[in-house]
């Protein structure tokens, strides 16, 4: 059983779970999937297409005819991690195809690794397939190559990410994702629902709804079929499928208020992942973010009035260019007032191409480290107090893993990898991943809970 806190970088997805089944003589392709959950979904789509063409998936370098590295370019540290992963794949296998956000700048990759077979950008699935065909021609056998109805999944079978749009229309100065992934393109609601239905039919118990800006879903349809439908309609439809539905990356637009009654009614999980990023108006202006932090507090109070059990999660940037000690203290004071349930932070980094690089007043690294530590200390204290208040309560949980020590579960307030866990260390022998049961909370730490199954719900 693992405990928190996890790595709080916002560009990380859960570790991919690679299947390893292959028939004799079947060409096998490896996959290294880096970056956020949106990139993980891209990896799933690539592997699903490859499986349909007769390829198997190799869980290691040695058994693969070629390796695909799906890269991230969100931060300079993520770029360095991507280059390291490409280098490792070249050393261990030698035949490497690069895709993903970092692939939007092919010269950056080939300058460091000129021996890669091909470089493609994000969502360029056809080009990735062409590169795989050139490296290892397909050899399909329609009698034995069976593709799961839900496609290839890189997450445990009881939860799945559901990407509802690509791109983003925001122009935040610290972010280059819109430059790499383009403007907002919402997927048709019927296509999203069909995918969600297939996933639930295949045994998925929790749908994690993701995009670059989930609350903007459908706003790009002004003159297209489906115009007038938005995230509230989609969430209502998804809520009728019988699975847990969790919303990520929801910007705090005023109409988000209309989502909260669906949470109060139990249609979707009472959980909002809102990227506030900061609280001081001047810092937010330098970020090119909405700067009305006081209205944000009013909205939080309104959401909690509608749905008292709502869990609010957010991430913040500390040490943004120009951030003064007074601005940082405003953020700490805001956090005291907002009392968010789940909080992550990361230290500002320059990213090639980001407009924030040229802002004056870059914060020294030692000051960033100090502010990060103070911020996380504050967030940890709030989390510890909130979790202590859950001791003695009965909560519904979903089981993620079971081993000899116990069961690792999550409550409705916890998303995979980024939030806390609830551990069951006795009476767990009959539990399996994907089970949903009621537990009574016995103990709490800063990030995690421990509980006992309630007999009538086991």
UniProtKB/TrEMBL annotation:
Entry keyword annotation includes Cytoplasm: yes
Q: Which SMART domains match?
A: Elp3 (SM00729)
Q: Which top EC class is given?
A: transferase
State its location(s).
Answer: Cytoplasm
Which Pfam families does the protein's record reference?
Radical_SAM, TRAM_2, UPF0004
Record region (Disordered): 1-24
UniProt remark on cofactor binding: Binds 2 [4Fe-4S] clusters. One cluster is coordinated with 3 cysteines and an exchangeable S-adenosyl-L-methionine.
Name the PANTHER family on file.
Answer: RIBOSOMAL PROTEIN S12 METHYLTHIOTRANSFERASE RIMO, RIBOSOMAL PROTEIN US12 METHYLTHIOTRANSFERASE RIMO
The protein's matches in NCBIfam families, at most eight in alphabetical order, are given as: 30S ribosomal protein S12 methylthiotransferase RimO, MiaB/RimO family radical SAM methylthiotransferase
Q: Which family does it belong to?
A: Belongs to the methylthiotransferase family. RimO subfamily.
Question: What is the protein name given in its UniProt record?
Answer: Ribosomal protein uS12 methylthiotransferase RimO
Whose protein is this, by species? Jannaschia rubra
What does UniProt list as this organism's lineage? Bacteria, Pseudomonadati, Pseudomonadota, Alphaproteobacteria, Rhodobacterales
């Amino acid at each position: 059983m693992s405990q928190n806190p996890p790595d709080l970088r916002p560009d990380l997805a859960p570790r991919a779970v690679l299947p390893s089944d292959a028939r004799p003589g079947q060409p096998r392709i490896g996959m290294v999937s880096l970056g956020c959950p949106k990139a993980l979904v891209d990896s799933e789509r690539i592997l699903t297409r490859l499986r349909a063409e007769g390829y198997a998936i190799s869980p290691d370098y040695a058994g693969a005819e070629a390796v695909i590295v799906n890269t991230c370019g969100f931060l300079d540290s993520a770029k360095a991690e991507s280059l390291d992963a490409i280098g490792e794949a070249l050393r261990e296998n030698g035949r490497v195809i690069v895709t993903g956000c970092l692939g939007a700048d092919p010269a950056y990759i080939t300058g460091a690794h000129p021996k890669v077979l091909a470089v493609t950008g994000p969502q360029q699935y056809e080009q990735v397939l062409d590169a795989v065909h050139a490296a290892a021609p397909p050899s399909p056998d329609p009698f034995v190559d069976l593709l799961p109805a839900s496609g290839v999944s890189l997450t445990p079978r009881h939860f799945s990410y559901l990407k509802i749009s690509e791109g983003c229309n925001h122009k935040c100065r610290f972010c280059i994702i819109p430059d790499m992934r383009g403007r907002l393109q919402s997927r048709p609601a019927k296509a999203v629902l069909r995918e969600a239905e297939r996933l639930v039919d295949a045994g998925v118990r929790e749908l994690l709804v993701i995009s670059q800006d989930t609350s903007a879903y459908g706003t790009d349809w002004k003159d297209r079929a489906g115009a007038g439908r938005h995230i509230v309609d989609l969430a209502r439809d998804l809520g009728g499928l019988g699975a847990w539905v969790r919303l990520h990356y929801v910007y705090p637009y005023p109409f988000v208020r209309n989502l909260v009654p669906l949470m109060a009614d139990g249609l979707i999980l009472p959980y909002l992942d809102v990227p506030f990023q900061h609280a001081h108006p001047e810092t937010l202006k330098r970020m090119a973010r909405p700067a009305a932090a006081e209205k944000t507090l009013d909205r939080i109070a309104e959401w909690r009035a509608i749905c008292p059990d709502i869990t609010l999660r957010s991430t913040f940037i500390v040490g943004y260019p120009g951030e003064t000690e007074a601005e940082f203290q405003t953020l700490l004071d805001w956090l005291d007032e907002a009392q968010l349930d789940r909080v992550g932070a990361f230290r500002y980094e320059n990213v090639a191409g980001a407009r924030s690089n040229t802002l004056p007043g870059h914060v020294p690294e030692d000051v960033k480290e100090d502010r990060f530590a103070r911020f996380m200390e504050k967030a940890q204290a709030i989390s510890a107090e909130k979790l202590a208040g859950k001791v003695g309560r009965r909560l519904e949980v979903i089981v993620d893993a079971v081993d000899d020590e116990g069961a690792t579960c999550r409550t409705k307030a916890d998303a995979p990898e980024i939030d806390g866990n609830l551990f069951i260390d006795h009476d767990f022998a009959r539990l399996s991943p994907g089970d949903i049961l009621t537990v009574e909370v016995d103990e709490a730490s800063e990030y995690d809970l421990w509980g006992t199954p309630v007999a009538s719900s086991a």
